[in-house]
Amino acid sequence: MNLAIKMCILIVFVFASFHLSLPLVNAVKSDENNPSVLVVYHPENGEVDEQNNRMLDILISHFTSDLTFKPIADVARADLKDVTHIFYYGYQSEHIPQTFQDVIRTFGGTFVALGENIEQLGDRFSFITQVSYENFTAITLAGTEDKVTSILPHQVKNVLISNESELLLIALDGEGNQYPLMVRKDSAYYFATSTIGPPLSPYLAEVLHEVFNIEHQETHPGYIRLEDVHPLVEAEKVVAIAKVLKDRNIPYMIAVIPVYIHPETQEEYHLSDSPDLLEALKYMQDNGGSIVLHGYTHQFRDSETGEGFEFWDVENNMPIYHEANEKVVKKSVSDFDSPKAFNQYIKKQQEFEKLYITKKLTRGINELVNYGLYPLAFEAPHYTMSQHGYAVTSEFFSTYVGQVQISDQDWEIMTIAPFITNPSFLNGMILLPETIGYVENSPLAVEKMLREANKYTVVRDGMVAGFYHPYLGVEGFITLLDSLEKIDGVEWIDLKQMKNKVKTGYVDITTEAGEVHVSVDRVGLYTSSFNYPLYHLKKVVKNLTWIMVGSGSLAVIVFINYIFFSRNKNRRYRKYRRGGRIG
């Protein structure tokens, strides 16, 4: 009987303990391979907060697709249900509401704090004591102090840490002083600066592997992109580079611009006007190359193809909300009676932008497919595009290549993802970032690219990707390739091996495991533009012409042979007759 009572008491105790710990259990319940992350921020900084949130989006979305951003004043206890990780970002000194402090007090998951206001986050971060602010000019992973990356001066929040904490990143000032840059104690992490983009982001990206404790293969995905291949590019130079890549069995990308517009005459040149280049592109597509649509004309207004911006009005530093010849009047929220009126104005502007981008991407995809070229990804000219533009692009492409713009106010505010990621602001598109730049017309260009590669190979699965303009010639390309192949752990990306989707109203392209599947509504495609069937008609006429020329040539050859042999036979007859050999 006593045993039975003891068992009942034990069961009640276990049951009660379970319910007492329920808030903590809820806090960490999630799919281990897809953690649930809540990013908390102060919204008072407007555009700056949006930019920093997008940088965090890039970094965190490498590990999970379950990501929520929430202003700190709006966070309630219910928001933490099933959340495994909280990221708090303090761009500058701010007051943390008591409501948030109360909410996080019982959170049992991983907590990552970045930047300012660490002293307001409760006992969990009591292992940190701020001392001062210091400047640093180098950074390294703890335990690899022999591998240091030099950077321009940045500010670190110099802190004292307890003996129980672990040092993950170290900042150095060039005078022998070291400062904790990222530390942890149990499941609490602190990053002691508010700078989260390059050049610090590769190091933060590497440590996030420890934060999420997710196994990632320690290799460096990479790609080489042949840039700005438009109808006036010399086919011979493109083919020479393609043959080098084929001989080395390296897959690659070709950033194709279907139409070149002359900046002075505004005359259009299509790939059909350059049959040698068109054949070269088909050869490349069949021998390791993958087509990337790099805009339709890569220009706006009277700018030259390859030099101009297509999806951003660089003269007015704004999205394409207007025709090229239209007078532009930029408006801000202060020009309207209410934020609602301003939002309605922006919505109307974005409707124009959507039509503009839709027209460009539809024409680009359809035109290439009509030639037998199949784009598998998209790269915006000069990497410039608004956030709304990315959303529109995601309706056509599942894969985006290059760097990304993280501001709708200034095209120059763009950033580099240190690894392959799937940030929510790309609306489902996978991002294959470019990390090491391109070969400039300089003897030190390749050396500069290798320095950039060293920064991103700090990340265990960091990206090594750059581009090359074919007009520079095959010799310079071989120099680049020789250097890149010496980087340990680089594995070249083959777009055809990835899952990609590209579509318009008449075209569907999918890839997987090396196979490219294309479905085309030919009737719809041909009726959408007379130029599409005209291209094939010209090909047929050209082939028939060659057949006719060939037939005529054959007839001439036969006739000449007949005359030759007939005269030769008659000559022998006369000779034999003179010799008395007839009969």
Automatic annotation (TrEMBL):
GO biological process, one term: carbohydrate metabolic process
Transmembrane parts of this sequence: 544-565
Keyword annotations of the record: Membrane, Transmembrane, Transmembrane helix
Gene3D superfamilies from the UniProt entry: Glycoside hydrolase/deacetylase
InterPro entries given in the database record: DUF2334, Glyco_hydro/deAcase_b/a-brl
Name of the molecule in the record: DUF2334 domain-containing protein
